[in-house]
Amino acid sequence: MPELPEVETVRATLEQAVRGETIAKVSLFYPKLIEGDSEDFLSKLVGKQILSVDRKGKMLCFVLSDGLRLYSHLRMEGRYFLGNPGEKDRKFDLCEFDFASGKALYYNDTRKFGRMMLQKEDEPSPFEELGPEPFEMNEEELLKRLSKRKDTIKQALMDQTLISGIGNIYADETLFACKISPFAPASSIDLNQCKAILSNSRRILSLAIEEGGSTVRSYHPQEGVNGRMQNELLVYGKPNFPCPNCGFPLRKKFLGGRGTTYCPICQKQEGRAFVLGITGPIHAGKSTAAKYFMGKGYLLFDADACVKELYLRKDVKRLIQKALGRKTFVGGEPNRGFIAQLVADKKKKKVLESILHPLVIEEAEKFIRQVGKNQKVLIDVPLLFQSGMDALCDAIILIDADLELRRNRIIQEGRDASSLMNLNRAYPLALARKKASWTIYNNGVLSDFVSKLSELPL
After folding, report:
1. Beta-strand relationship, 104-109 and 78-83
2. What confidence tens digit (pLDDT) does each residue in 325-336 have?
3. pTM (two decimals)
4. Domain topology for 134-237
C-alpha cells in the first residue's frame, strides 16, 4: 500500500506532467470510483485547468480552476499513467482524463479500492479528517494523542486520523529504529519515546522521498517510476533475516491483520517473557530439544497437558458433546478410543480443533503473563502452526529428521510406526521451514544434536 513517500513521488511526477493542462473530456469506466454523483463529476471537470497537485498523508488533491478540488485516494494499488486519448489498453484502467493538449491521464487500480471526490474549495476537505504528518507535530502532541489509545503503538501509528502518512512499511521501520515493540500499548509510550518516533519517522520518510519511495511486490507508483527505498529497508519484508543490530532472526507476526516484522531482542516488549516455540514432525527430536532448553532455565508450557486438563472442564465437555456427540465422554472421562475414531475424519477433527485450539492459546497467554518479565517460556507444540500458537512466539525452532530415521526410532520404542507416521503425514513441513527462525536437523548422534542447539543465540 502506498504511504507518504510513495504518494509524494506520485504527486511530484504528476505536478511536473499535468500542471497547466486543461481537461477536455473525462471517461469513467468504473462508476464506483467516484464518491458522490458520477454524472456531476464528469460534467463539472470539463474545461477546468489543473493549477497544481497537492498532498496530505496518503491522499492527493488536484487543485483546479474555478475553485474546484479533485481528491484522489490511491488506497492499495492506485496508479496514474500518461498516454494518448483513447488508448485504454490496461485491464484495470478505471478513468481517463483527456487534455486539450492531446495528452491523456489514466487512473489504474487493480483492486478497485481507490476513490475520487470532487468538491468546491469552500466545502469541508477530506484533508481535515487526517491527522498531522510527523513533520507537523511535536512529541507533546503525539503523547497526548497516544495516551487515549487502547490499541498497540503499531496500530496507532497506522491510524491516519492520529498521524497521517505512516503505513505498514514505515511503521515497522520507525519502531525498529526506536527499539520499541510494535505490540507495546500505545498508551504506555512515554515522552522520550514519542520524541524518538517523530525523529526517526521524519528521517526515514525524508530518505524514502529522496529515494522515490519503495517499490514493493504489491505496489508500483506508476509506469517508468520505480522507488529505491526498498534497498534501504532494514526489517520490513525480511522475516527470519538476521537483525541488522544484533543478528537475531527477525520475526513476523500479524497485528490487526497486517504483517509486522520486528526484532524480538532489540524490540523486546517490556514486562513480557521471551517465548520460544519448538515444533516438528513426529520423533524428530522435539522432546530432546525441550529438555535441553528447560535445562537452560526455560519454563515449559505443556500443550498436551493443557489439553488433558481442558477435557476435565465441564464447560469444555459441554462444547465437545454438543458438537460431536455425547459418546465423546464416558463417566465424565474423555472416551479416547471414540475421539480417536472421530479425528480420523478431517471434518470432525477440524471441529474438535476449533474448540480446543483457542482455549489452549488462551491458557498459554495466561501462562506467559503469569511468569512475568525477564523469564523465558518454551512452547513445545507439534501443531504449532495449525493451532495458531506460532503467533505467541518470539522465535521458532523447527526440529526435523529423515523420514526413515524417524520411523526406525518409533519401531525401537515398540510402537506402531505405520499408524503414527500416517497420523503425522499432514504436518506442514514446507510452511514450517518458511516460518521457523531456525531449522535443526537431528540425523546424527545425540551429542551432535545438542551441539547444534547450543550454537543458537538463545
Report:
1. antiparallel
2. 888 888 888 888
3. 0.84
4. Helicase, Ruva Protein; domain 3 (1.10.8)
